[in-house]
Amino acid sequence: MSHKIDHYKKNRAIRVAAFTAIGACVVAAPFLFSFSPYVLNMFMQAATYSIVVLGMIVVLGYTGQINLAQATFFGFGAYAVALGTVSLGLNFWLTLLLGIGVAALAGFVLGMTTLRLGGHYLAMITISFQQIFDLVAVNWADVTHGPDGIAGIERPALFGLPLADDRAYLALSLCTLIVAAFLVWWLPHTRLGRAMRAVRENELAAEVTGVHTLRIKVIAFTMSAALAGLGGGFYAAGFAYISPDNFNFARSIEFLTMTLLGGAQSAFGGILGSSLLILLPEWLRFLKEVYLAVYGLAVILIMVFLPAGIWGLIRQLMQRWHKPVVTPASAIPDLDLTVDASERSPIFQIEAMRKHFGGVKAVDGVSLEVRRGTVHALIGPNGSGKTTTLNVLNGIYQPSSGRLLLDGVDITALTPHQRAGLGMGRTFQNIRLFPNMSVLENVMVGAQRQNNPVGRSDEALRERALSALKFVGISDKAELIARNLPYGHQRLVEIARALAGHPRFLLLDEPAAGLNQTEKRELGELLKRLRGHGLTVFLIEHDIGLIEQVSDRITVLNFGKNIAEGTPADVLRNPDVIAAYLGESIHATA
User: Fold this and answer.
1) Alpha-carbon distance 30 to 166, whole Å?
2) pLDDT tens digits for 72-124?
3) 500 in helix, strand or coil?
4) Least packed by Cβ within 10 Å: which of 197, 532, 572, 577?
């Protein structure tokens, strides 16, 4: 395992060194080449816009949240610098910090009040927020100077050296861009970045796995707004003049286009998209009257035929040469799953639980106890309320009445991520992986739960994830993208993700669905091993053979009510259970 960690540390050091070298070359470029003032201004615009687009990478590319008000946060940073330096005579660096702070606060407030909605509702709200800013910037002339804008914005000094020279200020802007790009580039490899990507891929699965999805989305929105404020502050001082036209809704659409054009899931893609949209019209001016049409057509074709953006295509080509490092199973430590189950006291209790959807009583007064260290199966015909019961146990639905107790603690009002933090794991009938993340990253997200004692370091999480994959027998698939795995292996990845969080109570929703007979036998052996480690499993399954093979106790539902409970031998021969599955008339004939 130490060889694997050393390999990742070496790769990390190489990537950081390469990034640093490229960044140094970019910052030095204004002094190494003789650019005209016009070209320097174009590069300055590209640099400041790229900082703003990096914010879009965080909120849209990493977290999957639509933001059509990025120009508003850009405007907050610009107006803070312009008004602070021109009207109030404050120091540039102080006003820049104020601009970033105001933008971040606005992003935080907007995120807290709107991110519960998501989708097109979020898009509509951010558009409205952008329009409000446009109206205020134009009409509140006493403060914003209205349509006339603010002129005479001075550039700052750094360590006592004025940056009035275009090359010096461009170098500062590029240096700021490189630092911001490094942070955004590194973010996906952190706990926060993995949680963001999990939210983007499957928000429900992320919440159930232990990710506080609302918090993650608000953090992403706040970071995006802060980066836009940073870009706005440098833009204002760089061009010495701003007006409301610089920060209207059309600018937000432009930022969105830059993000999608370059590649929404990469910091490099954001910089590439910003630079292309600014520089491409200049490169096409030799076409004279038709250059704008060619420019527009080029952008449309790229976005239609390269949905992952230009950088997405580049990354795909690079991955063809990348050989994933496979750690031998013998070098991976065994998964520590052991839970004390020496006494068979109840670990989970359901007391008179009901879940009604209007007049439909999906679950109607269910009560049962699950004893620790056992496999407890919940069966019943289709529509009997099994999955609804599991969703209530997991916190996806709140019960209409009744109580849920985990080790004697009332968890009825807790959210899914809070229940995950107490040691509950979950898989789904319809597999819910994070499809565009690697198998290893999927399982690392599961290992990031509060109850997991392995620690917070990436090395510890990586080791825990590999151990979980070894436990289910697919550690050699760790570096593959999850969506590329066959169906049976995807099932195992979902189970490994749940196990990586060190659960004590595991909910499995039809884990054998879609598996062939060989895979079902292997699943049965896996469930027996889990029970052998003291883990408590609550299982929903239609395969009666598998149920009979692995279950210690069975509860049967029909029309949302308990109709039988006991050992497999007793329950599967119960006349009421047979009637529920076969129908009264068929049972009587038999």
Assistant:
1) 9
2) 999 999 999 999 999 998 999 999 999 999 999 999 999 888 877 777 788 88
3) helix
4) 532
Phi, psi of 368 (to 5 degrees): -165, 165
pLDDT in tens, 27-74: 888 888 888 888 899 999 999 999 999 999 999 999 999 899 999 999
CA-atom Rg of the chain in angstroms = 29
Task: Residue 106: name the closest of 230, 217, 226 by CA.
Answer: 226
What pLDDT score was predicted for residue 403?
93
State the CB neighbour count (10 A cutoff) for residue 280.
Answer: 15
Residue 230 pLDDT level (bands cut at 50, 70, 90) = very high
CA 343 to chain centre: 39
- pLDDT score, position 320: 74
How many other CB atoms are there within 10 angstroms of residue 135's CB atom? 11
Least confident of 113-127, 157-171, 534-548: 113-127
State how far the alpha carbon of 535 is from the alpha carbons of 185, 347, 370, in Å: 39, 10, 12
Give the C-alpha separation, 402 to 101, whole Å: 45
List of domains in the chain:
17-247 (no CATH), 343-423+504-520+530-590 (3.40.50.300), 432-502 (no CATH)
If pLDDT is split at 50, 70 and 90, which confidence band does 590 have? very low
DSSP assignment of 124-193 equals HHHHHHHHHHHHHHHH-HHHH-GGG-EE-PPP-EETTEE--SHHHHHHHHHHHHHHHHHHHHHGGGSHHH
Nearest residue to 270 (alpha-carbon basis) of 59, 530, 586: 59
Q: Which of 283, 280, 259, 281 is nearest to 271 (CA)?
A: 259
pLDDT surpassing 70 at residue 475: yes
Instruction: Check whether 278 has a pLDDT greater than 70.
Output: yes
Residues 6+ apart with CB under 8 A from 13: none
Quickly list DSSP for 323-352: -PPPPPGGGSPPP------SS--EEEEEEE
Tokens 């960690």, residue located: 5
3-state SS string for 392-423: HHHCCCCCCEEEEEECCEECCCCCHHHHHHCC
Report the C-alpha gap between 495 and 477 in whole angstroms.
Answer: 14
Q: pLDDT value at position 246?
A: 92
- What residues contact 92, with CB distance under 8 A and at least 6 apart? 81, 84, 85, 154, 155, 156, 157, 237
State the Cα–Cα distance between residues 319 and 307, nearest whole angstrom: 17
SS3 (DSSP) at 567: coil
Region for 352 from its dihedrals, namely left if φ exceeds 0, alpha if ψ lies in -120 to 50, beta otherwise: left
d(CA 397, CA 413): 10
Residues in the chain: 590
pTM assigned to the model: 0.90
Kindly indicate the confidence band of residue 534, based on its pLDDT and cuts at 50, 70 and 90.
confident
H or E element in which residue 540 lies: strand 536-540
